[in-house]
Amino acid sequence: DYPLDLNHNDTFLQATTFLPEDFTYFPNHTCPERLPSMKGPIDVNMSEITMEDIHQFFSRDPSIKLGGHWKPSDCVPRWKVAILIPFRNRYEHLPVLFRHLIPMLQRQRLQFAFYVVEQAGAQPFNRAMLFNVGFREAMKDLDWDCLIFHDVDHIPENDRNYYGCGQMPRHFAAKLDKYMYLLPYNEFFGGVSGLTVEQFQKINGFPNAFWGWGGEDDDLWNRVQYAGYSVTRPEGDTGKYKSIPHHHRGEVQYALLRKSKERQALDGLNNLNYFPNVTYDALYKNITVNLTPELALVTEY
Questions:
Q1: Who contacts 134 (Cβ-Cβ below 8 Å, separation ≥6)?
Q2: How far is CA 214 from CA 91, 125, 207, 219, 248, in A?
Q3: Is-contact 269 132, C-beta < 8 A?
Q4: Which of 45, 65, 106, 148 is deepest in the core (most CB within 10 A)?
Q5: Residue 1 included in any domain
Q6: Domain count, the chain
Q7: Burial of residue 17 (number of CB atoms within 10 Å: 0-12, 13-18, 19+)
Q8: Can you cite an annotated GO cellular component (predicted)?
Q9: DSSP assignment, residue 5?
């Protein structure tokens, strides 16, 4: 009997775009993008948990297959999503990520599996090259159509942050707690991003030349722009993430970034070589590689 104030009204409008609780699923119909099971804010639990405990918890769900492969049974998944996680020595972070991500992706009715791409050897960490390796290996398993590039220390805070792909590349982690939930700069493309397989192939994947932390996500932004795409982000607070604290120093490699355009056609998926050691966990496929600069040589430009 009284007008809703603006905040309530706004919340109500957002809520109505999601399907009602009594929505009927059909096994031969495509799963919707905005499901009643997607409630919004997630109760994030950042406390440490062992991988054994996570295995025990998810072993109660027989629908999760080897390698963390899952798909809905009550509708046809809109996207087949490969979640690629670059990794080195962050064993305490992986179970925390799975604790949040697996239930969220199930609520989103996506088909998915996890690929943990682990760097061995003494070279500096090469996040971008690991993503390229993960892509190549994932595509051997299934005709995935959506790729999520996911740092192990980024925990989503909202299950309406839909991990499907779109007509344009997607930057999911738009609001990080460590940046006071503000976008550090407009071209920021770090943390969690998503591209269709077609988009990723068109941009020639990530650059392989970025050794050490920093710059490779800016280069990916450049590649996306040069290919004629723009980047979309979740609206409002949907793109909020908590990041697990850890220590590494980022050194943006400006000399490489200045040559983004010249390098794009020469450095990426098309000059990638690697020798993987593949093992399976109940919840992910592990791809271990010893990366060296010689495995991705670039001709002069």
A1: 82, 84, 85, 86, 115, 117, 287
A2: 22, 10, 12, 10, 10
A3: yes
A4: 148
A5: no
A6: 1
A7: exposed
A8: Golgi cisterna membrane
A9: P
Of the candidates 109, 89, 103, 212, the residue with the CA atom closest to the CA atom of residue 153: 89
Distance, in Å, from the CA atom of 193 to the CA atom of 292, rounded to the nearest integer, reads 25
Q: For residue 136, is it within any domain?
A: yes
pTM: 0.91
pLDDT at 7 over 50: no
* CATH number of the domain encompassing residue 39: 3.90.550.10
Range of the domain at 19: 6-296
Contacts of 52 (CB under 8 A, 6+ apart): none
Give tens-digit pLDDT for 50-73.
999 999 999 999 999 999 999 999
Residue 213 tokens, joined: 């932390």
pLDDT of 228 reads: 97
Residue 301 lies in a domain: no
Closest CA to 116 of 159, 89, 86: 86
